[in-house]
Amino acid sequence: MLGALADDFTGATDLAMALVARGFRTVVSIGVPSHERLTVLPEQADAVVIALKTRTIEPSAAVAASRTALRALRRMGATRIYDKYCSTFDSTPAGNIGPILDALASDLGTSLTVVVPSFPAAGRTVVDGQLYVHGTPLGESPMRHHPLTPMTDSDVPRLLAAQSTASVVQVGLGTVRSGGLREALESLRSESLRSESLRSESLRRGDEVVAVVVDAQSEDDLVTIAAATADLPLITGGSGLALGLSGPGAPPVRLSAHGGPKAVLAGSASAATRGQIAHAQALMPHRRLDIAALRADFEGAVAGLRTWAVREWQQDSEKPVLVYAVGELSDVQPAAAGEVPASDLVEQALSRLASEFADAGCRQMIVAGGETSGAVVSALNVRELVIGQPVAAGVTWAQGDSRGRVMNLLLKSGNFGDEDLMSGAWTVLS
């Protein structure tokens, strides 16, 4: 069985979607699972993905959560581990991608892993170690303005080396396409073993790890990489790498639409989400979160938004309502000394609204932003997700149980999806 851990909730559904497409019977557990919690028993699944919330928390806490998830996956019988992070390598010089990679390699006792953030279907490619977003170097893309993990460098080996204790090596596209990747990896592994022959006990504990950043520009490249790394106990990357894996061929699940009102909750400030919000504003009732009002009277502000949404649904039950945090980057205001950060207020407000909306009969939600999605599914007390129909690259509908209520959820990474996603995704459900 393949065991995977994702650093946020949208990343988990993104990865699960890719695995389902490759024929894996896949279960997504929200948080670290127990055998009792999984309704699909581990022996019936080809892959289990644990959705964590480790992308932007303190590095030591991220490492601890990842190690706990790894232990759970191994107890369930996972023989191979997939460490999934964002395809734009969202992190800081302190982590968290590097520290988590180091910890997993150490716990698995492996001396070699690969780093493959490429996701060509979503416009993310790596050439000569440089990460591109729709052809633009990462450091020049809108990700340079990300409020939590501003990415101002495009060089993946350099980004990783700043936060990892591993030896970082880069393998180019020529090696991948010539069929020489497996040989290159074996050579690196052998060199590592020889150079550390006097410290074999340390090596077996994973204290010396080689992390190989591998170029990929197409899905065919990912298939080649997946085949060349089939014997590695640990692989790391974006969800694109999963598109190169070969599963047992299980058919995908088709989800039915559950009746009731619809809502879009957008906490992301990414350029893609802002474009989707701008498109949706012309088509559905919308309100932007008033951070000042939330600071002054949180309960009153949330109650007002609930009342507004219910009124809109009464007027037209088929039309979704949109509540969003950021329409323009100028909407992002730093907190004053002693104030709760705006990002925390956004998560608290949108997760509370998700619960309030569900109580009011809402059974279909689109949620934009990894941190927001994590807060929402936690507020809804959703423990597992069944992955259904894809909507766009890295975007899929899922179904979960929220306190006995079956809900359709689309948990969207901020950077993913076409402009009309918030208005058009509903039609994909059966």
CATH hierarchy class name of the largest domain = Alpha Beta
Which structural class should the secondary elements be placed in?
alpha/beta
Second CATH tier, the architecture of the largest domain: 3-Layer(aba) Sandwich
Q: Count of DSSP helices? A: 14
What form results from the Cα inertia axes?
Answer: globular
Q: Notable features of this structure?
A:
Rossmann fold; ATP-binding; 430 residues; nucleotide-binding; 15-stranded mixed beta sheet; globular; single chain; Molybdenum Cofactor Biosythetic Enzyme, Chain A; NBD_C_sf; 2 domains; 3-stranded antiparallel beta sheet; 14 helices; alpha/beta
Q: Could you give the topology of this structure?
A:
Blueprint: E1 2-6, H1 9-21, E2 26-30, E3 47-51, H2 59-75, E4 80-84, H3 97-108, E5 112-116, E6 124-127, E7 130-133, E8 136-137, H4 156-161, E9 167-171, H5 173-177, H6 181-195, H7 200-204, E10 210-214, H8 219-228, E11 234-237, E12 262-266, H9 271-281, E13 286-288, H10 291-296, H11 298-315, E14 321-324, H12 342-359, E15 364-368, H13 370-379, E16 384-392, E17 395-402, E18 405-412, H14 421-424
Parallel strand pairs: 1-3, 1-4, 2-3, 4-11, 5-10, 5-11, 9-10, 12-14, 12-15, 13-14, 15-18
Antiparallel strand pairs: 2-16, 6-7, 7-8, 16-17, 17-18
Helix pairs in contact: 2-3, 6-8, 11-12, 12-13
Family: Belongs to the four-carbon acid sugar kinase family.
Domain Four-carbon acid sugar kinase nucleotide binding: 263-421
EC number: 2.7.1.217
